[in-house]
Amino acid sequence: MKISVHAVGRMKAGPEKQLADRYFERFAKSGPAVGLEFAGIAEIAEGRAQTANERRREEGQRLQTYLQPGTALLLLDERGRNLSSDDFAGRIGLLRDGGRKALVIAIGGADGHDQSLRDQADLLVSFGALTWPHQLVRVMLGEQLYRAATILSGHPYHRS
Questions:
Q1: Which of 2, 82, 100, 149 is least surrounded by CB atoms within 10 angstroms?
Q2: Domain count, the chain
Q3: What is the pTM (predicted TM-score) of this model?
Q4: Across residues 140-155, what is the average pLDDT?
Q5: Cβ neighbours of 118 (radius 10 Å)
Q6: Does 86 fall in a domain?
Q7: For residues 103 and 66, which has the higher predicted lDDT (pLDDT)?
Q8: Residue 8 sits in a domain of what CATH number?
């Protein structure tokens, strides 16, 4: 299953980008052994509309262009489920084993995701009740994807 990340906002050069890149590279190397292929990160600029609702709608429409028929959609959303790493890996494994060919994981803009995307999503995931900077969310997502690949392969990186 091809996994791509769709992010509103650009990641600037710096230590956070280096760390995020390191985890995404680890995932890209370890994922194929368990049927997960990293397809990269698509970045889009934040919406320019006057209101939060209009910005969410604009950003959501741009994400729709990346969603081919049959693609699973996972939104990182503050109102989503707070999963353990084992559960996160298990959900990805279920999508893969269920025949899904692609998964898009979306990091929303400062205003969050449009309700139409939330309604369409296969899964809403939260990295906790705290608000995280966009750069750290990328680091955490890269690490969790790498951890998911190691969990699915039985590698000892992940210890309960």
A1: 82
A2: 1
A3: 0.93
A4: 95
A5: 18
A6: yes
A7: 103
A8: 3.40.1280.10
